[in-house]
Write the structure tokens for this entry.
Amino acid sequence: MNPGTKKPSAVVLLSGGLDSATVLAMARPKYRCYALSCDYGQRHSAELAAAARVAQQLGAAAHKVVRVDISSIGGSALTDRAIAVPTQPTAGIPVTYVPARNTIMLSIALGWAEVLGAADIFVGVNAVDYSGYPDCRPEYIAAFEKMANLATKAAVEGACHFTFHAPLIDMTKADIIREGTRLGVDYGLTVSCYSADSDGRACGHCDACRFRREGFAAAGVPDPTRYIS
């Protein structure tokens, strides 16, 4: 892009965690980034405050929080407090999987992108150091992109072709942390823990904490995470 050329707009899903913060940092050199967070009734709602901090630190053009109460249908340890968050690795897809979460959030991002006239949508899904969620796989992102270009006025009328970017999809957690550190992400602002308290302190035992801690160790980067104990 030539100096002085206006950046195209992009919507970036921003949870407030390590991965989505890195994606925002990766997108911002080429795009005017509109950060989108979803308040879906998650028990780790401290991540929403973290998202606001990250959006400000990384210079998002705007930060929108949309309320969608997925907790009303339950079915996940992240939305139903009667289901405990696992503190040890489990076989199969864990109970921290939230039914339809990424589909809902990507749909909202798609809607906002269409309103903004933005053809690019970024999401921080990862299929390497992750819990095995089916909606974090490359084939899911490709299928959603195909659907988006069938289902929107902007695409059908030829105003744009929507592209979904998942730049972390094949990266290890250590590689993500190294890249974010290079791009100036302050990971001390982020919250990844599934059981974070209201102050954003991490439990240190859930899958998200384990992947995060192992990632910082493998990257050789000091871990700024605040733990409950």
User: Anything to note?
Assistant: Strands lie at 9-13, 32-39, 62-67, 120-122, 163-165. The longest strand covers residues 32-39. The chain has one domain: 9-219. The mean pLDDT is 95.
